[in-house]
Design a protein that fits this description.
heterodimer; A: 344 residues; Rossmann fold; Helicase, Ruva Protein, domain 3; 43% helix; B: 673 residues; alpha/beta; 4 domains; 5-stranded parallel β-sheet
Chain lengths: 344, 673
């Protein structure tokens, strides 16, 4: 299946924070997602799609509705309607697998709960009289990216469910006569325009990272944006070729960072730095500390360093703290940490 | 779809952060452990800010729970020692069914659960095969003798909450639906977590939880570092981490199991019982549940400490957990002003102080202590204190502070009595979440799962009527009952004329509006704002769910000029009428903040006469409920214009000073229908 090529991630002009945030979330999915706040037309979805394009392919069981890797632990094959593959069952021969690109699953604003978590498979029920689970979007997004545009306009309970699965890595369904559990580990990317209403603090906190994007104010940059976009639209393949090298380099950097992440060490003083920053900012709970530590480690891995440095912590704070500063429901999300400090 | 183990935490194959590796949070851990020793305590409600290991602790608890004897393959977790409670399946054989041991369950109720999965219902495939109704046990059956865990219990659907409460109260789940009649025992400890910022819990449900603990984040940097290090090494290599803590986990599990064995032998002396009774009466708790809970919890605590006799210390260790959410006056308060309820706690716990002989500043130190009896008197400075102060500075920087949280609940009660915080939507809208079904003549929003279940038992008879495997007749039709949190619309009609600017009246009004906005946030209401000054009224904010924008606009609202009250009323009403035309079921609320001194008319006549005329005709529309907040200065000469206005509108009338007074509760009770 040949689809329209995606605008390359590396060719996006500016928006460094957003790009870094996305890359961090990709390298380390346990950062539990990125929230991108900003106006329309700031290359948010272009960036997500472009990034997925250059990621290393994953191995999945052929036609598996749950996107499972072969022999993945905790697989839901017992209740799966597809009997053809026997993925995860060691006693039988290995299931057939294919390699494919990381999927970007988009959650539309009008999505209903049953489509998100999955529900009773009606066709099977009516035709064969058997009760089976029909996977929803969370199953499709397993091992991929779940992209939620306008997350603040989504029904509250759908967001609750999303974040619950994102945090737990599993989706538990108890509805319409079906009881089912399947793995759902995905990188959650949400976008929102703050002018249309805020997310509840409880939900904000569940997003690991948060970046704010703005349209560029530099005329030269804006011209650059237009020029590149026109070049891409006129001749996509030529444009892709032109950017093939940087794309490859970034893909390689990401691959290296993923491999390196596990061996990055954190000196104890840096841990105290992190704790001090979180205490100073007065964040609720401990999620901020943990995410900040992970983000700093991921940054170090991405920069090819084996040890977390002061700068890593400094930079991680920019992604982790802004949306966590203790705030009442009505308070504004602080956009810039520097401004926050001066205000103090 | 058979394996019920699917919903039992931890999920298969996943690694769970060990219970004993959680840093700090001793009171929460103690409360959970006590419930593991004796589920009869009635569970625990864990209240606290986000990210404080609430859910992690409950999930971890599942790993250290003892094994209980039950029958092989019994979906109802029957107790072999109580034959009178056995399910039909266990009773069927002539010989007793085979007994096995399995760990006590922690059953999670996911937020997406529908009613049929909670209480159980007809098993569709089984009924098809056998041609008669076959009951499929729900989560309540699985939770029998174990723990039912509800994360974010305050967000759970009201109807489901009722069902669960009912079962918890009677210890039995009675199912009368879909042609099946079934009853089975279900005794479980209810464990819930909630973040009070997101809304309160109904008092009945609050009382249902045996214990209640508040959790806070650690303020000591080295604790936080320790926590990060543990989490970090857990994620780096979960298997290794689990191995590192396997000793402690085993020790904990053994201690719990030992305490469970000891529990039946623990005796409570008469003087302890009377002490418990005194504690309960001196704290003005409602009902007797607190006494019973305290007695059971102290016995469990004694068993946990390895004693066969309860002592004063045991009671003191559990007293606060059992009393904090039951104090009669505190019922509406905890969610809104934990700070002040905590003060109340401290002052009303002289026993603890005396017993511990700690200096009053013990709060700082108490965190490092692990002894549960000392953990009792260590409520750390509550976040909401700073929280509230911050809010006051933030929002009302120009004016005087206003006790937001204190005022919200009574106003809330007044405002919502008619509307409720959620409204059931009509089925043809097909919005909202599907929570249950009902039989239907037409099928606009079919509940197919229920339809299939209804048709299943008759399939053997209907075989051959159609090529499909399942034949559905009109009498099987079911439709979905959906619920959606649709908050109502609140219109703020704010007088911004010059007369409002004097002596900080405007900032007081802003405070009043802001407190209502906060309340609206919790109820997910939409808000709109209309102001009037100089010659005309203007719509400052069209209806929006974004409370933030409303707050900001309120902050920046300019004041000055004359008072065109009549045109303000007209503009506000016009806006509401448009909204009601869009949604005929909307019952909006309008809050008019003014001193009533109008001096600009729309027409030629006297401004005041015109205003009253407009108000009278608006007041005839009973769909809109009005609240008039009078900002007139108290003095010798009072015009009471706003009061006249309120009666013309047929709305409620409040003076802004009375809004500010602490005893608003009583005033509102007097006024409300």
């Amino acid at each position: 299946m040949k689809t329209r090529p995606h605008y390359p991630f590396v060719a996006i002009v500016g928006q460094e924070d957003m790009k870094t945030g996305l890359i961090l979330a990709i390298i380390n999915p346990t950062l539990s997602g990125v929230l991108i706040r900003g106006e329309k037309g700031t290359a948010k979805s272009t960036a997500v799609r472009g990034l997925a394009e250059i990621l290393p392919s994953i191995e999945v069981v052929r036609d598996c509705p749950f996107q499972l890797a072969p022999h993945e632990p905790g697989s839901p094959c017992d209740g799966c309607a597809r009997k053809a593959c026997i993925g995860g069952n060691e006693s039988k021969k290995s299931p057939e697998t294919v390699f494919r690109k990381v999927a970007v699953v988009e959650l539309p604003v009008g999505a209903t709960e049953d489509r998100v978590v999955g529900t009773l498979d009606l066709e099977k029920a009516l035709k064969e009289g058997e009760k089976h689970f029909e996977p929803g979007l969370l199953a499709c997004a397993h091992r991929g990216i779940l992209y939620v545009d306008e997350v603040n306009l989504l029904d509250d309970h759908v967001v609750d469910i999303l974040l619950d699965s994102a945090a737990m890595g599993v989706n538990t369904v108890e509805r319409e006569g079906v009881s089912f559990t399947h793995p759902a580990r995905f990188v959650l990317v949400g976008t929102m325009n703050p002018e249309e209403g805020e997310l509840r603090p409880q939900l904000l906190d569940r997003f690991g990272l948060c970046v704010t994007v703005n349209g560029s104010r530099d005329p030269h940059e804006r011209v650059e944006v237009m020029e590149r976009r026109i070049a891409f639209d006129e001749n996509p393949s030529q444009f892709l070729e032109k950017w093939a090298d940087p794309s490859l380099r970034l893909a390689e950097e990401i691959r290296r960072a993923i491999a390196l992440y596990m061996s990055v060490s954190v000196p104890r003083e840096r841990l105290f730095d992190i704790a001090a920053r979180c205490l100073e900012a007065g964040v609720d709970g401990h999620r901020g500390d943990i995410i900040m530590l992970k983000a700093a480690k991921t940054l170090a891995a991405f920069r090819g360093r084996m040890e977390v440095s002061c700068e890593d912590v400094e930079e991680a704070a920019r992604f982790v703290l802004p949306h966590r500063l203790r705030r009442q429901p009505l308070q504004d999300v602080i956009q810039d940490m520097r401004g926050f400090k001066e205000g103090k | 779809m058979t394996a019920p183990s699917g919903t039992v935490h931890p999920p298969r194959g996943g690694h769970v952060f060990p219970f004993s590796a959680i840093v700090g949070q001793d009171r929460m851990k103690l409360a959970l452990v006590l419930n593991a020793i004796d589920p009869g305590i009635g569970g625990v409600l864990i209240r606290g800010e986000k990210g404080t290991a609430k859910s992690t602790a409950v999930r971890g608890l599942a790993r250290v729970l003892p094994e209980i004897p039950t029958h092989v393959d019994c979906p109802f977790v029957c107790d072999p020692e109580r034959p009178e409670e056995w399910c039909p399946q266990c009773r069927k054989g002539f010989t007793s069914p085979a007994v096995c041991h399995r760990p006590l369950h922690v059953v999670t109720l996911p937020l997406n659960a529908t009613e049929d999965r909670v209480i159980g219902g007809l098993d569709f495939s089984g009924s098809l095969r056998r041609g008669k109704p076959v009951f499929q046990p729900g989560l309540l059956a699985r939770a029998h003798r174990g723990i039912l865990f509800i994360d974010e219990v305050n967000l759970l659907d009201d109807h489901l909450v009722d069902v669960i409460l009912d079962a918890a109260a009677s210890g039995e789940n009675v199912v009368q639906r879909e042609g099946t009649a079934f009853r089975h025992k279900t005794r479980f400890a209810l464990v819930g977590t909630m973040n009070p910022e997101e809304g309160a819990l109904r008092p009945q449900l609050l009382d249902r939880f045996g214990l209640c603990v508040e959790v806070l984040s650690e303020t000591d940097p080295s604790c936080r570092v320790e926590l990060m290090e543990r989490r970090e090494s857990f994620e780096r290599d979960p298997t290794e981490f689990l191995r590192r803590f396997s000793g402690e986990e085993a020790q904990l599990a053994a201690r719990i199991a030992g305490a469970r064995r000891l529990l039946p032998h623990v005796r409570t002396g008469q003087h302890i019982r009377s002490f418990i009774g005194e504690l309960a009466t001196s704290h003005h708790v409602a009902g007797h549940r607190s006494d019973l809970v305290m007695e059971r919890a102290s016995r469990a605590h004694a068993a946990w400490e390895g004693r066969d006799r309860t002592e004063m210390d045991d009671v003191l260790a559990v007293a606060e957990m059992a009393l904090t959410h039951r104090r009669r006056d505190a019922v509406p308060r905890p969610a809104h002003s934990p700070a002040s309820s905590r003060e109340a706690q401290e002052s009303s716990f002289p026993e603890n102080r005396a017993a511990s002989e700690e200096p009053p500043d013990h709060r700082e130190v108490s965190q490092e202590r692990s002894s549960p009896s000392e953990a009792l008197q260590g409520p750390e400075p509550h976040p909401d204190e700073t929280f509230q102060q911050q809010a006051q500075e933030q929002v009302f920087g120009t004016g005087e502070a206003f006790p937001v949280k204190r005022i919200a609940p009574p106003l809330d009660r007044l405002v919502r009595r008619g509307s409720g915080r959620r409204t059931r939507t009509r089925t043809h809208h097909k919005h909202g979440r599907y929570i249950r079904f009902r039989s239907a003549r037409t099928c606009r929003d079919p509940a197919l799962d229920a339809m299939l279940r209804a048709a299943a038992p008759f399939q053997i008879r209907r075989r051959g009527e159609s090529p499909m495997a399942v034949v559905i007749h009109p009498e099987d039709w079911r439709e979905k009952v959906r619920e959606k949190r649709i908050g109502s619309l609140i219109l703020f009609l704010v007088d911004a004329s010059g007369s409002m600017g004097v002596r900080g009246r405007m900032s007081a009004s802003k405070g009043a509006v802001m407190s209502l906005l906060l309340d609206a946030y919790q109820k997910r209401d939409r808000v709109a704002m209309v102001t009037f000054r100089r010659r005309e009224a203007s719509v400052l904010l069209p209806p929006t769910p974004s409370i933030e924008i409303a707050g900001r606009l309120l902050d920046e609202m300019p004041v000055g000029g004359r008072t065109p009250l009549s045109s303000g009323l007209a503009a506000g009403y016009e806006l509401l009428r448009q909204q009601m035309r869009k949604d005929p079921h909307l019952r909006p609320l309008a809050v008019l903040v003014t001193d009533g001194k109008c001096n600009v008319a729309m027409g030629e006549g006297n401004p005041m006469d015109e205003t009253l005329k407009v108000a009278g005709s608006i007041g005839r529309d009973r769909r809109v409920r009005w609240i008039v907040v009078d900002t007139e200065e108290p003095g010798i000469v009072q015009f009471q214009l706003a009061r006249t206005l309120a009666s013309a509108l047929g709305g409620l009338y409040f003076r802004i000073d009375s809004l500010r007074a602490a005893d608003l509760v009583n005033i509102v009770k007097g006024h409300s229908p």
